[in-house]
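Hey all, quick one. A colleague (J.T.) asked me to put the iron/sulfur cluster job into the tracker so the inputs and the structure tokens live in one place instead of scattered across chat threads. No bug as far as I know, just bookkeeping. Sequence used:
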Amino acid sequence: MSHLTTETFDANARAALGDVQLRGALRNATSLFGTRRLAAANGLQNWQELRTEARAIKDLVLLNLDRYLAEFVSNAESCGAQVHWARDAEEANQIVCRLANEHNALKIVKSKSMVTEEIHLNVELERHGLEVIETDLGEYIIQLAGEAPSHIIVPAIHKTKRQIAELFTEKLGIEPTDDVDRLTSVARGVLRQRFAAADIGISGVNFGVAETGTILILENEGNVRLTTSLPKVHIAVMGIEKILPRFADLDVFLKLLPRSGTGQQLTTYQSIITGTKRKQSDEGPEELHIVLLDNGRSRMLAHPVTRQSLACIRCGACLNACPVYQQIGGHAYGSVYPGPIGAVITPQLIGLGKAAQLPYASSLCGACREVCPVKIDIPELLLHLRAEITEGQKAEGSRQKAVGREPGLEVAREGRDQDEAVARSGIKKHKMEGVAFKLFALMMGSPGLYEWNGKAGRLFQRLVMRDGRIGKVGATFSRLAPPLGAWTRARDMRPIAQRSFRELWRDGLAEDRQRDQPH
Ligand code: SF4
């Protein structure tokens, strides 16, 4: 599974659709989380106000990110933390590997963190000869399976209990069992030993508070607590967008995040870490390193539309609500960030040329926008990225034409690579689609043509309608008209009404006139 890439999204999605076990696991999990989220949100009377407030806080942060980051760094350092800046994944990985080297570390425990998945930290650490073990149960399962996470908060959502049991038997040599308590206790036994032997603990960060230099990490298993307090050195990798201005802002986000993610009122553990331990008898690390990661975030920040992607608090609610994710799961996206938010973040992180299929992985139904606790308008972002892809293709097309006409023409290098990549990206320019839209525009611009078309459609549909429906299973329509047949293969098409609105309107006017005639 982990070999899947963003560039092969269409093929990945098709393969996932054929995996009955995967779709069953996804259906159960996403509907369960969706139901729980709704119940938890309904339990708060001011849910909508909280969403609005959270978005306002995020907007404030994003418009003043430089100032809040400086405040965060100053306060974190005054409490003993050491802050490092990383422009991209490579720099972040280098910093972590250097720190591991400086401490002669061999064994590392790690808690669940999307940002470390984003930079492929494990691969880099292992390349440097370090042993890394994931300590979140879901992450541990997929690490054993050699896979990537398929959900932001439930990394092994795609696996059934039976598959996990088989994996444990194969990798850990236990007797076959489907007893969940037994499986959990086996994992706990393995992980406890690793905590005790670890030289360094690595975590992500849910929120960083500028006012106090605090980092906050949410979890349910207690593994973050152990990762961040047992080893002498704790390295926290944090995206620069995770900042909140004030400690009191946590109140809003702690109400929204657990409810949106798992339907809990609060996660079981909240690790609130402000600097290193003060006294020897205190719990906590002797050294705390916070790696602040940009990796494309400044680019997103620069544009008013894409900026809102950075408001995401990684709750995963949009994944559970998305009809596309519900069918294909996370691996098909070929990215650590799947689902609706992945479809907008990934192309911005790795470039449209490599992920041009993702913004099209949506029906634009708006379910993601409805559930998002920080009111991110994902459909707007998807349309924005689609427009950029189309512009890239057009630019590449006209350049090729220009080069064809004038063989000696110098083509500016800047922007060309990206446009070429978009043009090669697997998003096919459907000629038929272009023609269809031109005809549609022509028809909509001419009332006479529009009316004539409606009449012709009403006549034509008699040939293909069965029991008042078009596209009913077994109907001739899908067999007769291949391009339209693709639409009706899995769904009905609404027939054109027997009387158009214009006709009804005209009849109504005529009746009104008749009524108004003096008798
Ligand atoms: S986009 Fe919204 S719903 Fe989706 S993960 Fe981010 S915060 Fe949650």
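Adding what we noticed when we looked at it: DSSP finds 25 helices and twelve strands in the chain. The radius of gyration is 27 Å.
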